[in-house]
Structure formats: structure tokens, C-alpha cells
Write a structure and sequence with these properties.
With 510 residues, the chain is an alpha+beta fold. It folds into 3 domains: 118 residues, no CATH class; 135 residues, no CATH class; 204 residues, MetI-like fold, CATH 1.10.3720.10. Helices cover 56% and strands 14% of the residues. It has 17 helices and 13 strands. The strands form 4 sheets. Strands 1, 2, 7, 8, 11 and 13 form a 6-stranded antiparallel beta sheet that branches. Strands 3-6-12 form a 3-stranded antiparallel beta sheet, with no helix packed on it. The N terminus is likely disordered.
Length: 510
């Protein structure tokens, strides 16, 4: 079939416009797309109409958000132009040009030789691109200027192996008791000195903690003069504080943690301001705090760190989570796929009804993301890998059921007809006419689904579905980027290995 330069089929009758071209242009100037509809270009007119209405609605919505506190259309427009002039003016000019172009397009569509190109739709796409840029808050300047802030965390993620190993720690410390606040009773006495052990003494042994004033500004507490000896010489030493409840934390001064080097004889002398600490009203009795200089050193050989051990455990859990979900999904998807194949279910009205019901259920289940199923499963069975298996199994049944059924619909009908000609029933037809043809695509789709399930199991862990995703989100929330980097590396390595293994299996069996 040949077409002329205008895109019309040669020999085909072109239905004339219901209205003259000038009227078509005027009508589309009043209602965008109306002229095209009356010029017998209905789809084009409706598409342009809904595009115009959508663009106007989105622009109105964004201007309302920009000028949230303004009332009245003109006030909102002025405020929006004042705050984001480039976006608002560009969209307004674009909408006006599009409206005029739609009127001109309607005039052309009503001509005997219809003229209509795709240029007008390029303008529509450009308008929606500008809207999408503003709605999604893309800020390239911010991305470029603040990339330095993302550098250190990204480097820790990309090279996290310093946190993969650790050594046993040896701690040398001494402590002195501090009363806060001072009272009428004698303050705590200096600790008894034990020969050969590190020792620290504070002066005074009572005082006031730092506190916040009515403007949330820190009012410095009492200053303690610390003297210590018997520590390791020329070694970094940290100052720790323990409140009466037993909570320990490092002491900050001027926004920095206090640490220093002991002298050549293992002695030191420094002043420390008593830190801020909120003691609950339920605490009774004298409030005895402890100030404690600590020296921490690594001893012994290298051994796996806790993040590395947890990552390996969770990665194994993730692999088996995907494996079990795939296994259950295949077992349940195979019988469902036969009921979702039109060529096998078209024998009667009852089987066709079952076909439509099965297809509808598969479409509904597949349309819901595994992440949503995982949230539902967590509510059902609680946190853990079992919830993840349920979520992935449900989605696998729907996805594999669709893929398997479409493969069944594409098989050669000859073997089926030959087996049915022998008087075989429906089950025998499937066993000897369908299954032998389905083994290669079934294996291929199953391996592909296992790969998807392993990848997806790293995501559903974010909502408590077990696997390494649960561990990864915890590390990110704690800003422990090196531990998070270990998890990311293990995910990438595992997915790469599984991809190689699945490709090898597919090459052998498909």
C-alpha cells in the first residue's frame, strides 16, 4: 500500500471537514482541539485538548504552591513571577504559543489536503519537560556546589575496607568522682592510689554542670583541673564522662572532643569544663559523676569486624530469601499459568471465564510492587525474612504466571492437535503436548526471576523484610558509611556472581 507525501493512503477517500478552515481555527482558539475534532481529526484534537488542560492545571497548581499565602489570581500570579520568574514566564509564553499553534493546526486540518506535522507535539513535550523540571526540584547549581559535602561519605562507601577488619582493644584508664551540685556534706575524696596503676585526681571534686539558658545557649559549668600519671607515655588520651545513671560519653570542649598526648613519663595536666548533662527529676540522692581519662590501643592480629560478619550473614540470608521465594513462586505459578493461557482455556465458556478471572488476579497482584507486599507481610507475620519471602513469592507468582502463560500461548499448535486427535484429555494434552515445548522458556524465565528476587530482596529489607537491605538502611541512618559501603560492595559482588551463574545455567539448559 503506497502513501503520498502528505501521509494519506493512495486511493483511500479522505473524509471532508465538517466546518470550513477559518471556523475550525476560531473554534480551537476558543476551546483547544475543538476545531480538529470537527475537522475529523478527533484523536489529534482530544490529545491536544487534554495536553493543554493538563499543562494549565499543573502550572496553576505550582503557582499556588509558590505563592501559598496569596489570595486572588492576580496576586498569586505576581508573587509567582516575583519568586520564580524564569519558570512562570517561560510556561506562560509557551502555553500562549501552544494555544495559537493549536488554532493554526485546526485551520490546516480542515484543508482538503490535510497538513499536520509532529512539531506541535514537540512543544507539548517541551512544556511538560519544563513542568517536570520544576516539580521534581532539579537544582544543578546545588548539585555542583555541594558535591564537596558528598565527597567524604562517598569515598567511605567506595572504599570501606578499613572497617572490615579490627583488632582487640586494650584500655588503660583511671577515674575520679565528681559531685554535682556541691552540697553541705564533704565532697568525694580523691581515689586511693594503687602502685603500678594509672591514677587521676581532680580539683575540685564537686561543681556545677554546664546548662542551657532561656535562649538555649550553653552556660559553662565549673572547671576541673585534672592531673594524672602512670599512663602510657606519648600516647593519645581521651576524656570520658559517666553520669550517675551509668551513661558514658566523650567530653567536648569548644565543639571538639578532648584528647591529648601524655608526656614522656605518662603524665598529663589539663583543665576540663564540666559538660552539659540532663539529669531526670526522678534521680534522688547525691549525684556522683565520674571523669575518666582513657587510652585505647589495638593489640593482637587482624580479625573480621562486626559490620563484616553481619554483612556476610545478611547476604547469605538475602540469597536464600530470593531462592525460597523463587522456588515457591515457580511451584505455584506453573499450574496458574496453564489456567492463564488462552489457547488451553478456550474450549468452553466456563474455562474462558476461569481464564479471565486468573488473568485479572495476576494483573492486580503484579501491579502492586514487592515493597508494598513486604509492608503488608510485615504487618501480618512481623519483621524478618519470612515477610520478605511472602512478598517476593506473591509477586513471583503473578510475574511468572504471566510469562509462562504467554509462552504457552506461543507454542506450536501441531503437537497439541495431534495429541487431541488421539482422544487425549486436557491433562494428557498438557503433559505430552505443552510441557515438552515449555521446558526451555520455563528454565529461562525461572532463572531470570531468581536474579530479580535476589536484587529485590535487598530493597524489601528497607521496610523490615529481612536480608541485607535491613542492615544497610540501619548503617545509613547511623551515618556509618564505611559499614554501609561493605554492604553495598557485597550486594554488587553477589549480584555479579549470580548473573554469571544464571547465564551459565541458561546456556546449558536453554
Amino acid at each position: 500500500m503506497n502513501r503520498n507525501k502528505k501521509g494519506n493512503v493512495k486511493g483511500a477517500a479522505v473524509r471532508p471537514s465538517l466546518i470550513p478552515p477559518p471556523l475550525a481555527g476560531v473554534l480551537s482558539l476558543v476551546i483547544p482541539g475543538l476545531g480538529q475534532v470537527l475537522a475529523r481529526a478527533g484523536r489529534r484534537g482530544l490529545l491536544l485538548f487534554f495536553s493543554m488542560v493538563s499543562a494549565i492545571g499543573l502550572l496553576t497548581w505550582r503557582m499556588r504552591l509558590i505563592a501559598r499565602r496569596e489570595e486572588g489570581a492576580l496576586a498569586i500570579l505576581r508573587k509567582a513571577v516575583d519568586r520564580q520568574p524564569v519558570f512562570v514566564i517561560l510556561l506562560l509564553v509557551g502555553l500562549i504559543l501552544l494555544w495559537l499553534w493549536i488554532a493554526w493546526d485546526a485551520y490546516g486540518q480542515a484543508q482538503p489536503e490535510r497538513r499536520g506535522g509532529s512539531g506541535i507535539f514537540f512543544v507539548v513535550i517541551l512544556l511538560f519537560f519544563v513542568l517536570g523540571w520544576q516539580i521534581s526540584e532539579i537544582d544543578l547549581y546545588k548539585a555542583v556546589t555541594e558535591i564537596s559535602d558528598a565527597g567524604p561519605p562517598l569515598l567511605r562507601v567506595l572504599w570501606p575496607w578499613e572497617a572490615a577488619v579490627t583488632r582487640e582493644e586494650a584500655v588503660i584508664s583511671a577515674s575520679a568522682e565528681i559531685l554535682s551540685p556541691c552540697d553541705e556534706l564533704p565532697p568525694p575524696a580523691p581515689p586511693a592510689e594503687v602502685p603500678g596503676q594509672p591514677y587521676v585526681i581532680a580539683d575540685p571534686t564537686c561543681g556545677d554542670l554546664s546548662e542551657l539558658d532561656e535562649n538555649n545557649q550553653v552556660v559553662l559549668g565549673s572547671t576541673l583541673h585534672l592531673r594524672g600519671w602512670g599512663f602510657e607515655p606519648n600516647t593519645d588520651t581521651q576524656i570520658w564522662w559517666a553520669d550517675p545513671l551509668g551513661n558514658e560519653f566523650r567530653v567536648r570542649q569548644a565543639g571538639e572532643y578532648i584528647h591529648f598526648l601524655t608526656d614522656g613519663e605518662g603524665s598529663f595536666e589539663l583543665d576540663v569544663v564540666m559538660p552539659y548533662r540532663l539529669i531526670p527529676p526522678s534521680a534522688v540522692g547525691r549525684q556522683i559523676h565520674r571523669v575518666e581519662p582513657r587510652q585505647t590501643s589495638e593489640v593482637g592480629g587482624l580479625m573480621p569486624s562486626e559490620p563484616l560478619r553481619l554483612t556476610i550473614e545478611r547476604m547469605i540470608e538475602t540469597i536464600f530469601l530470593g531462592l525460597m521465594a523463587t522456588l515457591f513462586g515457580v511451584v505455584l505459578a506453573v499450574p496458574v499459568s496453564f489456567m492463564a493461557a488462552r489457547n488451553l482455556m478456550s474450549g468452553s465458556v466456563a474455562t474462558m471465564a476461569l481464564y479471565y478471572v486468573t488473568r485479572t488476579i495476576l494483573n492486580i497482584v503484579r501491579s502492586i510492587e514487592p515493597l508494598i507486599w513486604a509492608i503488608i507481610a510485615v504487618v501480618w507475620v512481623g519483621l524478618g525474612p519470612f515477610a520478605g519471602i511472602i512478598a517476593l513469592t506473591l509477586h513471583s507468582i503473578a510475574a511468572l504466571g504471566k510469562l509462562y502463560s504467554e509462552s504457552i500461548e506461543g507454542i506450536a499448535p501441531g503437537p497439541i492437535e495431534a495429541i487431541q486427535a488421539t482422544g487425549a484429555n486436557w491433562l494428557q494434552t498438557i503433559m505430552y503436548g505443552v510441557v515438552p515445548q515449555m521446558i526451555p522458556p520455563f528454565v529461562s524465565f525461572t532463572i531470570y526471576r531468581w536474579d530479580i528476587n535476589v536484587r529485590m530482596s535487598t530493597v524489601i529489607g528497607l521496610v523490615g523484610g529481612g536480608g541485607i537491605g535491613f542492615l544497610l538502611i540501619q548503617y545509613i541512618r547511623l551515618l556509618d558509611y564505611r559499614a554501609a559501603g561493605i554492604a553495598v560492595w557485597f550486594i554488587a559482588i553477589t549480584v555479579a556472581i549470580l548473573d554469571y551463574v544464571s547465564a551459565d545455567i541458561r546456556r546449558r539448559f536453554v
